[in-house]
Every structure is written in C-alpha cells, then in structure tokens.
Amino acid sequence: MFGEAEYELELNVAAGEAWDLFGTLEIGKFVEQQLPHLIQKVEVIEGDGGVGTLLKLTFELGTGGPNSYKEKFTKIDIEKRIKETEVVEGGYLELGFTLFRVRFEIIEKGVDSSIIKITIEYEVKEEAKANASFVSINTLAEIAEAAKIHLNKNKAPN
C-alpha cells in the first residue's frame, strides 16, 4: 500500500534563507534546540550534510510514532531546493514499511517570500497496512511553523 501526506506553509523570507535552514544540517540542530518535546536528539552518524549523510533521530516518547530511527539524505538538489531523506534502519521499517521518505521543497514565491512544501511518501506491506495510521504530517508541520517564527525573528533588515 502506497500513501502520501503533504503540508505547505508560506514563509516571509527569501527562498535562499529558508533553504539555508531546511536544506542543511541546521534544521536538525534547530529542532533539537527549539522543539525538544518532539525530537530529543539528532545525531550525525556519518556525513557532512550532503547526499549519503546518515542521522539518528530519537523522538520524545508519546509523539505517536516510532521512538527512533536512522535516516539517510538520498537527494539534495540545491538549484531546485529539494532535500529528501529516507528511513534506512529501525522506526517505520520495523512496523512493516518498505519506504518512508520525507521531501522538503522550498519554492520561491517572491523576493521576500517562499513556501516550504513537506511531503511524506510511504509504502507499507499489505499485512501491516493498519500501521499506516502512524504516519502523520503533524510533527513536520509543527517544525515548519516553528521555523517560520525563527526565520522571521532572524530576518536580515532590508
């Protein structure tokens, strides 16, 4: 069974500023510091933020999903401002998922305006399809909302 969830949020900053946060390891540091009630720890296991970078995410208990998993950066397109990660160990894979991918896309809207589009794509084995209910865009939406506030506070004056 294949599924998808999406979330979009307009940001009041240029696409390049949003990409500097979402397209790099900075988003992990931001979440760990600003939203510890969602994600307790983001550990870089291997890599420098490019394709192949491996992270271990440890979630706060009671967030509704897995307690931890490892994810790998599988695609980074700087020109199109797209970053994709896939769970490669633990978490959703232990719940019968064969694919759990998150895509961050920064879309330029104007000089000081952009959109963050977050997409979750997943495949789950037929016998585990009830576990698809664990998929939620809510945590990523909360991260995007907090990032919007952070980016606006740190916006460079014109």
Low-confidence stretches: none
Estimated share of beta-strand residues = 35-45%
Q: Helix tally?
A: 3
CATH class: Alpha Beta
Give the total of domains: 1
Order of helices and strands: EHHEEEEEEH
Shape: globular
Rg over CA atoms, rounded to whole Å, is: 15 Å
Give me the CATH architecture, please.
2-Layer Sandwich
Mean pLDDT: 92
Please, what is the CATH homologous superfamily? START domain
Task: Determine the structural class based on helices, strands and strand pairing.
Answer: alpha+beta
How far apart are the first and last residues' alpha carbons, in Å?
48 Å
Percentage of residues in helical conformation:
10-25%
CATH topology: Alpha-D-Glucose-1,6-Bisphosphate, Chain A, domain 4
Strand order of the largest sheet: 1-7-6-5-4-3-2
- The strand count comes to 7
Largest sheet: 7 strands, antiparallel
Task: Describe this protein's structure.
This is S-norcoclaurine synthase 2-like. One of its GO terms (molecular function) is signaling receptor activity. One of its GO terms (biological process) is alkaloid metabolic process. InterPro entries: Bet_v_I/MLP (IPR000916), Plant_def-hormone_signal (IPR050279), START-like_dom_sf (IPR023393). This protein is an alpha+beta fold and 158 residues long. It has a single domain, classed as START domain (Alpha-D-Glucose-1,6-Bisphosphate, Chain A, domain 4, 2-Layer Sandwich). The protein has helices at 15-22, 26-34, 138-153; strands spanning 2-11, 39-46, 54-59, 68-77, 82-90, 97-110, 113-124. A 7-stranded antiparallel sheet has the order 1-7-6-5-4-3-2. Strand 5 (82-90) and strand 6 form a beta hairpin. The mean pLDDT is 92.
